[in-house]
Design a protein that fits this description.
With 335 residues, the chain is an alpha/beta fold. The protein has eleven helices and 18 strands. The longest helix is centred in the middle third of the chain and has 13 residues. The two termini are 12 Å apart.
């Protein structure tokens, strides 16, 4: 089969690689679409060490696939099923979550268990949309952990797929108004089409814009905008600075973006305002099922999140495009 092997920064090779035999407890899947993750971009540009992707390993981990072979001891899975391979368990080795083989034609999934190694994908979810299940579950998990209540308001920093997924899930779970904050007007235009309020901090005053959207709330230092939930999907300290400056009483700040520098905060202010700061890494069975439910509902036109599609042979071009937020949102690979 053809597949991309990671050889280091700016060095990936499309090669003929052997496919392991399907054992009695295994399945073989054929990839249909794969998504380019922000971590794939970082690994290509600099190093894959942070995601345990090393030279000589297969590349890619976001995909929707079709089952083409099933071992005799595997239960609940049949040839022809469409599945979402759960990256952390798909290779039966949690260290392989970043090197599942999303950019290979076929993937061997050893010791396969339904709703553990793979999840079935319903007929209501198109292939291209299903290719976003992994990042959608990541963003959805951040929304779930924020404990949204009906009628609350939320502000999400970052309009990539994870930020968009967080915003969509917050809205789906009952938030009244959700606003996305992003420097890229290209991505904000897509967010507006999906029905979200938006703010570009390089062009607009955040507090003024958020107050127009959410109305007045109250923080420990007086009036502010009425946002109950802040989700940081950027990894930027600017977002946390806004939370400390504008967060209302009892607000929650959920970090799902990857920060590369330490943050500082005043715990006394946090205490007096009864605020909460928390992290959200990865996803769970709950957030995978929630992502599928949203995709099946048809409530949001999720095809709008996919801005470019490339054949497997053009992966490097696709990665370069995906790294340009002013020209892309989600870039997928078609097999």
């Amino acid at each position: 089969m053809k597949g991309y092997i990671y050889q280091g920064a700016k060095n990936i090779e499309l090669k003929e690689i052997p496919l392991d035999r399907c054992g009695d407890k295994d399945i073989i899947v054929k990839n249909l679409y794969s998504g380019i993750c922000g971590s794939d971009i970082s690994a290509y540009k600099t190093s894959g060490d942070f995601m345990r992707l090393y030279p000589g390993m297969e590349f890619g981990h976001e995909m929707v696939s079709e089952v083409v072979e099933v071992g005799k001891d595997v239960e609940g899975i049949s040839v022809g099923d469409r599945v979402f391979p759960y990256p952390i368990y798909a290779k039966d080795d949690t260290k392989r979550s970043g090197s599942v083989g999303g950019f290979s034609e076929y993937v061997h999934i050893p010791n396969c268990r339904l709703n553990h190694s793979v999840y079935k994908v319903s007929d209501q979810i198109p292939n291209r949309v299903a290719a976003m299940l992994e990042p959608f579950a990541v963003g959805g998990q951040a929304a779930i952990l924020s404990r949204p209540q009906k009628g609350q308001n939320a502000i999400v920093y970052g309009a990539g797929v994870i930020g968009m997924a967080a915003a969509i899930t917050l809205k789906y779970l009952g938030c009244d108004k959700v606003m996305l904050v992003n420097r890229s007007t290209y991505r904000l235009e897509i967010a507006e089409k999906l029905g979200f309020a938006v703010c570009s901090p390089v062009r607009q005053d955040l507090k003024e814009t958020a107050t127009e959207v959410f109305g007045i709330g109250y923080g420990i230092m007086g009036p502010t905008f009425n946002a109950d939930i802040f989700v940081d999907a950027t990894g930027s300290n600017d977002a946390f600075a806004d939370f400390q400056r504008y967060g209302k009483l009892n607000a929650v700040y959920t970090i799902v973006g990857n920060h590369h520098e330490p943050m500082t905060f005043n715990p006394q202010m946090l205490m007096f305002a009864s605020q909460r700061i928390q992290g959200s890494g990865g996803y769970t069975d709950q957030s995978v099922r929630q992502a599928m439910e949203i995709m099946e509902s048809g409530q949001f036109d999720l095809e709008q999140l996919i801005t470019q599609e490339y054949p497997l042979e053009h992966l490097e071009e696709a990665i370069r495009k995906a790294s340009t937020s002013s020209e892309s949102l989600k870039v997928v690979i078609r097999f």
